[in-house]
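#struct-pred

JT: dropping the chains for the assembly here, can someone run the whole complex?
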Amino acid sequence: MNAFLLHWTFAIPEIWVLIMACVVLLADLYLGERLRDVAPVLTVLTLLGAAVLTFFELGQSGTTFAGLLVLDPFTNVAELFSYLAVLMVVLYSRRYLMDRGIYRGEIYVLLLFALLGVMVMVSGANLLSIYLGLELLALSQYALVAFNRDSLVATEAGLKYFVLGALASGLLLYGMSLLYGLTGTLEVRHIAAALVNVTSSNLILVFALVFIVAGIAFKLGAAPFHMWLPDVYQGAPTVVTTFLASAPKIGAFALIIRLLVDGGYGMLESWQQIFIALTLVSLVVGNLIAIAQQNLKRMLAYSTVGHVGFLSLGIVAGTEAGFASAFFYTIVYVLMSLAGFGMILLLTRAGFEADRIDDFKGLSQRKPWYAFLMLIIMFSMAGVPPTVGFYAKLAVFQAVIAAGYVWLAVIGVLLAVIGAFYYLRVVKVMYFDAPEPESGPIVRDDLASATLSINSLALLVLGIVPGPLMAFCFYAMQGVI
Amino acid sequence: MHDFYQTGWWAVIWSIIKIVIVVVPLLLGVAYLTLAERKVIGYMQVRLGPNRVGFRGSLQPIADALKLMFKEVIIPTSANRFLFLAAPVLAFVPALLVWAAVPFGPDVAISNMNAGLLYVLAIAGLGVYGIIVAGWASNSKYAFLGAMRAAAQLVAYEIAMGFALVGVLMLAQTLNLSKIVEAQAGGGFWSWYWLPLFPFFLVYFISGVAETNRAPFDVAEGESEIVAGFHVEYSGMAFALFFLAEYANMIFVSLLTTVLFLGGWYAPINTPLLTWIPGLVWLLLKTAFLLYVFLWIRATFPRYRYDQIMRLGWKVFIPVTIAWIVVVGIALETPMRAILR
Amino acid sequence: MIITTILFYLFSAILLGSATAVITARNPVYASLFLVLAFFNAAALFILLGAEFLGLILILVYVGAVMVLFLFVVMMLDINLTRLKEGFLSYLPLGLAIAILGVLELAVVFWTSPLGHIPAPGPIPANADNTRALGVLLYTHYLYPFEIAAVILLVAIIAAIALTLRRRQGTKTQSIDAQMAVRAKDRISLVNLRRPEQ
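RK: done, full complex below.
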């Protein structure tokens, strides 16, 4: 067999997702008129199949395709969680899309392609494959955001996202090209090896790292590169917003691991400084501006900025425990946002978008179970003890204190307390305010509500027994440093 | 190409001589192709065609050329003067440039370049700029409509054309036009590429008709709908250049089809009876036959409607060519490889 | 060799001149045509380098297809140029500063990094075929990114169609299948018109 095809089996999950995305596209084209559910059902099967295939690859590691694709524990774990995230989005999506007349197969096809982009990023061992994965993800996202083309806000959000996203890709690419110029190779491992001979004060290296970190910060949604988040989160169809807050964040986290840790761990001090600045700005901006928001989607967007601040605390720590806790935080954040946006999806009905905080007034009287689930979600986001959100924050604080940045941890705790205010306000509105008279009935949606119940209760269960998930994250970080 | 420059200035002069040797007969050929067209279509429609100037009309093209030369070039009032005059040149120059790579025999070409196939494909696509610029610069709605139609049509058919050439490339394993012909040597007409690549042969020739804006794909002119389309405002020599470009392109497409699919300069049956005739004669005979088909098609088919052209290009030709590429690719991996190559 | 050098400077000068004209031209159609000219000269430079495949593909794809569509759109739009050009001068210093910064950075990279010290390539072998060389690399070593790039294009197609295609009611499009499937009895019914018996 040709050398470049050695170990090609490492790419089987990617190949499976690609083939199935095409199958979904064709099936929807020919059967979609008669069987409207064919695309989502096939998508669910695809995700389950991919999970099985990835599961079989657990424990293997190595590179393939001439070193462009790497399989290691991080690849496996990150891919498994990406499948889970997309699966949740698909399960939440059906009624919302139907109500808005955009229940079309292309949404699911684009979701699968976006997932493929995440997978390529997560398993990228070469600047080329990482960048192409990023573009695949980004292009699918632009189309998804603007998918409801009759909605003015959605198209505006799509265009805004497109322009800013292209700029961010440009920044990242420029940083990559400088890195390439400096080291003469595109392969991350070789870059790491070549950087040994470069002093950390090298001007080009600093420029390259600034550009790369700026690009990553944009994709992650860290302040001051967060300008797109609120508008896009609010403007996009909520199903798409749910997706934006899930698998792509795992992909963005993979950018950090692949570019900065795999490639630039030798240059830790150089980019650590930049990350400290990002963390501080994100924590402040995210948690303070979120207080002023009346729209829940916007509030969750700013809360995303805040969460990104917290998870970068773990990256600032720069230790294995730090990266593991940051990964843990990322996964927890994904689960929380899935649940948060899932709740909006559940309360939404045709012609009515339950995305104002006022729409949650008196939810405990209208639907006590939903109110309870929302309580768990908000507690988890705020970091109140029995939930997993608390444990995630605890882990990053521990890591950053262990690395000697006590002052950062103190600021983090302070802003977490401030941030708790706006999450608890939602709880207050649900339990202590009377429902608005014009709030209509809550439409019954068994599939989404069952998913949401599992999703939210998972936040509670994982908070009580966080051990296995944490162990999984530590497993993922094996061999990364 | 490097050797070419290193051999000194006289090489430049030598290539100018070669260019003249190709271009002068080409322009004569264009002139008499117009006569042939009027005669052939005339007979098909039970008329005589031109029969007054010279012996049975044989001097008609000369008379036409003289007439066009002495006519005034009128520039419409609010036309863009510079682009209006540049457009015919933009149409005419690519029509001549493509001939640089055309082989007339084994290694007989102005430039027997390695990527000849790619070169002709790239340059042949440039002619459309003349049409688009003419349509826009004329400041006339009919001209503009013609230009828009030409642009859309070109993009649609160039893809199918490119795919058809990919098939040739797969069998010949080279982009050099001379070597492509040599790869078809061996037997007679059954070893030429038209047989294994029959769908490509058809698609390429029909796309060629479309790319040259000839009937039934002449919507860019479309006399009955948009008067004369992109060249409605042109007169005199400016108009003549468009005319020359169109006919030169016809000859070129026929010759290239011969080279790619009909065995170039090889005789149809490999016997001494036929092979003593020089290859150039065979090449020109096959080209002449395809040119006749051009005229035949024009006399036979009514003009396509615009949406039908798009449908044929996008929904028929492109899928057909892609499917046949797959077929050829698979066949090349089987024992049939020996027969095909 | 001297001809090659002259040609190099000629093509480079036209390339730079037309590239400048692209951003300074007042008329968008002129700008597009200058861009075509720039592509053409860039292709010529590639060919001078012996990279005929890249040069010809540049012409084929960008000049032959992309720019035709660009012109198609630009000619249809009625762009108000004076409004577009407003603020050009006020943004110019910032833009120039960024451009100069970028150039400086690249220059530093080339001076200090291994890329700046790569030995000049040896003479091109007589039977060099860079089409084949590129193909072999793309389909072996770079197979994976090549395929991903293909998927990106597929996504672009799907996205473009999903965002723009809509089936409007009441348009009079032709249904070829229905036309072909028609039989005489669908269109003509024979009626017995014999005069009744009197």
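JT: nice. Chain B has two domains: 1-66, 71-339. Chain B touches chain C through 34 residues (CB under 8 Å).
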